[in-house]
Amino acid sequence: MNPTPLSPPSPEADLPQDLSPRARVIAVVVWASFLASCAGTLFFFAFIAPVDLIGEEPQSGFMDHLSVYTLGFIGFWCVGALASAVALYLVRTPPGAPPTEPNIG
Question: What is the pTM of this model?
């Protein structure tokens, strides 16, 4: 039995699809805010220990040192996402234009 030769796969099949403009904007905001959150968490907790925020003996078992680090990171990430989104909006909005949805394309 002689197998039929298979055609080689097309080169376009292995290439990733390009992101839509909206997905690209979201990716930029999320990545920039993630990096800002990493730096903010690093500097904030370099000077302020979680013990200073929750005390030596927490009142409940809910808050421990890891929880404080986690909540700080998520808080910095939210602030960074808001700042990145506002900066992107201001860059994409022409001067004197009414406040509408920015031109993503």
Answer: 0.65
Contact between residue 51 and residue 68 where contact means Cβ atoms under 8 Å apart:
no
User: Which residues are within 8 A (CB) of 74 and not within 5 positions of it... i.e. 6 or more apart?
Assistant: 37
Cβ 27 vs Cβ 19: under 8 Å:
yes
User: How do the pLDDT tens digits run along the chain, 105 residues long?
Assistant: 566 666 666 655 565 678 788 888 889 899 999 999 999 999 998 998 887 777 776 566 667 788 888 899 999 999 999 999 998 888 876 777 666 665 665
Query: Which distant-in-sequence residues (6+ apart) come within 8 Å of 93 by Cβ?
Result: 99, 102
CA separation for the pair 19, 13 (Å, rounded): 16
